[in-house]
Design a protein that fits this description.
This protein is of the alpha/beta class and about 350 residues long. The chain folds into two domains: about 60 residues, Orthogonal Bundle (DNA polymerase, domain 1), CATH 1.10.150.530; about 280 residues, TIM Barrel (Alpha-Beta Barrel), CATH 3.20.20. Helix content is about 35%, strand content about 20%. Strands 3-4-5-6-9-10-11-12-13-14 form a ten-stranded mixed β-sheet, with helices on both faces. It has a two-stranded parallel ribbon with strand order 1-2. Helix 10 links the parallel strand 12 and strand 13. It binds iron/sulfur cluster. The site of iron/sulfur cluster has 11 residues, from helix 4.
Length: about 350
């Protein structure tokens, strides 16, 4: 019989487990501390639970952490992990150390339905949502691996890996609730950023039900062009997304960022910079300009660094805070989604 994993359960759900097994309610708090505080691998390691209770628990439940099956390390220290998922697929997670900080970029779906023109993951199509356990397992495991290896501990989590967070929002939201709960990781929501193309269905919930920072993938201020780059524009146009965001109060240290991947001769002209200023003016936000990594069979190429600098300067000179995101792990990054695409197809052909 398959045991039920405990990773992904809230304190309330752990209390329900205690009730089911006739264990005292306070045991749930102890279990949460062992799981989310100490990252144990087995129930037997929960040594302040009585032996009888550990045996009862172990008969039906397991901690449920899953080790990565592959890891590649870049020259600059960036690491890409390939994790198995509950639906027997694979997703990528990227660890990006930077001085005394380190960001973990986590995935929330296997593949993606959004089909953005420039994205390798989009080409996989959608192959399933990650469970709360799948999402948290990436953080659980990498946090422990970097501690064992004496590397910089995680300071930030970004939901910018494979998949669209608002398309698996219940699980994404629950994972952030466990990350920020006192009986979970007890992280501040300001250490977490949820990135989205801007899905109408859950955008309002992202603003109202979560306190995490928000990043919106913009990529073009021009409707027709954004539609070509990102079919999601059809459902919720960037002008409507920005209008909704402008109505929201961003003054409580919560941050809104716009991600802008630059493509040579496509979205990097002065006209685009002007349109971007027009679109975002009057809004407390910043724009992250991102260098693109070539994806096979995609008729786009990356903008030259000098042109990115000019674009950034234009935005900054016209009241929009813009930065160029440092390109990290280029030697292993090249086409985010490539590693899992390869693994998925190997698996399907077995
Ligand atoms: S860029 Fe993000 S939303 Fe678009 S296809 Fe790729 S993973 Fe999905």
């Amino acid at each position: 019989m398959n045991k039920t994993p405990l990773i992904g359960m809230t304190l309330k759900e752990l209390q329900d487990v205690c009730l089911q097994l006739s264990m005292p309610k306070f045991t749930a708090k102890q279990m949460a501390q062992w799981i989310y505080g100490k990252h144990v691998h087995t129930i037997d390691e929960m040594t302040n639970l009585s032996k009888v209770n550990r045996e009862k628990l172990d008969a039906l439940f397991c901690v449920g952490c899953m080790a990565p099956i592959e890891k590649t390390t870049s020259k600059d220290g960036t690491e890409k992990y390939l994790f198995p998922t509950e639906n027997e697929r694979f997703v990528e997670t990227v660890y990006i150390p930077e001085g005394d900080r380190a960001t973990l970029c986590v995935s929330c779906q296997v593949g993606c339905k959004m089909n953005c023109l420039f994205c390798q993951t989009g080409k996989q199509g959608w192959q399933g949502d990650l469970t709360v356990r799948d999402i948290l397992n990436q953080i659980y495991t990498v946090e422990q691996l970097v501690a064992e290896e004496g590397k910089t501990p995680l300071s930030n989590i970004v939901y910018m890996g494979q998949g669209e967070p608002l398309d698996n929002f219940d699980n994404v939201l629950k994972s952030t609730e466990i990350l920020t709960a006192d009986d979970g990781w007890a992280w501040s929501p300001r250490r977490i950023t949820i990135s989205t193309v801007g899905l109408k269905t859950n955008m309002r919930r992202l603003l109202d039900d979560s306190e995490c920072h928000v990043a919106v993938s913009l990529h073009s201020p021009i409707h027709e062009q954004r539609l070509q780059l990102m079919p999601a524009e059809k459902q919720f146009a960037i002008s409507d997304i920005v209008e909704m965001l402008k109505e929201y109060d961003w003054s409580h240290q919560r941050r809104i960022t716009f991600e802008y991947t630059m493509f040579d001769g496509t979205n990097d002209s002065t006209l685009h910079a002007k349109e971007l200023v027009k679109l975002l003016s009057g809004m407390e936000c910043r724009v992250n300009l991102i260098r693109w990594h070539k994806v096979n069979d995609v008729p786009l190429s990356e903008t030259k660094p000098e042109k990115m600098v000019n674009f950034r300067d234009y935005l900054n000179n016209h009241g929009i805070t813009a930065t160029i995101r440092a390109s990290r792990g280029q030697d292993i990054w090249a086409a985010c989604g490539l590693l899992s695409t390869k693994k998925q197809s190997e698996n399907l052909s077995l």
